[in-house]
Design brief:
Length: 467
């Protein structure tokens, strides 16, 4: 062969260059970036840190409030980076979007491989590989191979291992597994996070949070959400029938309770007394007891015992009020208070017959007022307004479902495993040899005990002699 012919037989180095050494495409680079576990960990760390900061720094207050508390420069810094409304800021939403994209692509990237492991033909595993596995056992029996396979096929399901078998050139291979689906636990966790984020998005778009103050005896049907200029019509009325407060001996509030009534089209729908940890929910809108405010006016309820008529009045301090139907006049002319809490009330009362009645009574109590030929019951208390936080979050059940799903996914991922058992039965030196091997993708030390107990149990089939 000549030189030219020889050169033709030798391929040029550039012509043999593998396409594997070519630079990856932009799509591959972007895909690998979003499929990275490091990106997920970094994003979760940043979100966690931001959440901690958002918990420490009070949110959604006026800029003047931050300037007064932290100083003008820090207030401007907080406002510049939207740290005063962190969970509604564009960069926090961008982080959540990045995390969602990462979880979706990471799942799509890894799911085919995991699904392939779940659906793999485990009876196609070479026998040599089984014998070389770290977790294995072997023994012999005088039973014929066919009888040994029958015994093992009966014994394995009794121990919770559903068995499949396949004939090979040298013998019979049995296979059983538990928890193959547990490999999907990580994808359940990914899905749960996405469901929680979907719930948060639904709540932020379709829900609202705000506060409202209702004076005793009055009602509202609109609220103003936090950070919004427009009012939202609730679609029903909420009336504060009464407000009660209890104090400790040192004057600190012990418990405050609002008695609320829901009206629709002037028809009473629902009544409930709410406290701080016992809200009222109607049509997906929840009213939480949050605060109160005392007034200089008083709530006076007067009952005519003779005819049963009853009426409640809002009575300004030291101003006369008249009940025309009963031709009576009354007023609060003095009070006694302890730590800004009215404890005793001085009442002036007359019904045009005789001299006016003047008497002291405990706030919130009821006293009998007897006039010439007439009898009344009178109760008086300081007027309050109840402060309610109002919230509607239609995505809350998505969030709850996501949390439950996350717990199931985490339990599956960390406490359950995919366990496999192979048993090969063959005839060797006029005896039936049995080789057993097993593997687990997690909790391998725990699987060692399960494997050993199962091997000991299977050795005890009749006419077996240890190898």
């Amino acid at each position: 062969m000549g030189r030219d012919a020889l050169l033709k037989e030798i391929p040029h180095p550039l012509s043999t260059m593998s396409t594997k050494n070519s630079p990856p495409s932009i799509f591959t680079l972007v895909w690998d970036f979003f499929a990275s576990v490091k990106l997920a960990l970094m994003t979760l760390c940043i979100i966690s840190l931001a959440s901690v900061i958002g918990t420490i720094i009070p949110q959604n207050e006026a800029l003047s409030w931050y300037a007064k508390r932290f100083g003008p420069q820090i207030a401007r810094f907080l406002d510049l980076f939207h740290l005063t409304d962190m969970f509604g800021s564009f960069w926090f939403k961008a982080l959540l979007g990045l995390l969602s994209t990462n979880l979706i692509i990471c799942s799509l990237d890894r799911f085919p491989g995991i699904w392939k492991q779940i659906r793999a033909d485990n009876l196609a595993v070479p026998v040599k590989r089984l014998i070389s596995m770290k977790r294995n056992a072997s023994w012999t029996t005088s039973l014929p191979p066919i009888k040994a396979v029958e015994e093992l096929t009966l014994r394995l399901p009794g121990n919770g291992w559903k068995t499949a078998s396949r004939e090979t050139e040298n013998g019979t291979l049995l296979f059983s597994q538990k928890g193959a689906w547990t490999r999907l636990g990580v994808f359940v966790v990914h899905a749960s996070i996405l469901i929680i984020l979907i719930g948060a998005i639904i709540g932020s778009i379709l829900g609202f949070k705000g506060s409202v103050s209702i004076v005793e005896g009055q009602s509202i049907e609109k609220i103003q959400p936090f950070g919004a200029a427009a009012f939202i019509n609730l679609g029903f009325k909420v009336r504060c029938d009464a407000f009660n407060i209890e104090f400790y001996q040192n004057g600190m509030p012990k418990e405050y309770r609002s008695h609320l009534t829901i009206f629709e089209h002037d028809r009473e729908i629902l009544q409930k007394s709410i406290t701080v940890n016992n809200p009222l929910t109607y049509k997906g809108i929840t009213f939480y007891q949050s605060s109160y405010e005392g007034y200089k006016d008083f709530i006076v309820t007067l009952t005519d015992k003779d005819n049963g008529r009853k009426k409640t009045f809002s009575v300004p301090f030291q101003k006369q009020t008249e009940w025309q139907e009963e031709e009576v006049r009354f007023g609060v002319i003095n009070v006694e208070a302890e730590r800004e809490q009215v404890t005793r009330i001085k009442i002036w009362f007359t019904d045009q017959d005789g001299s006016p009645s003047v008497f002291w009574m405990d706030a919130g109590s009821q006293v009998a007022v007897d006039r010439e030929g007439k009898h009344y019951l009178l109760s008086a208390k300081q007027m309050y307004s109840t402060g309610l936080q109002v919230a509607k979050d239609p995505g809350v059940w998505w969030v709850y479902s996501g949390c439950i799903l996350m717990l199931l996914g985490l339990f599956t991922t960390f406490f359950m495993s995919h366990r496999k058992i192979w048993i090969f039965v063959c005839e060797k030196n006029s005896k039936t040899s049995i080789y057993m091997a097993g593997s687990a993708n997690k909790n391998k030390s725990g699987f060692d005990g399960i494997f050993s107990n199962l091997a000991d149990n299977l050795r005890n089939i009749k006419k077996i002699t240890s190898k």
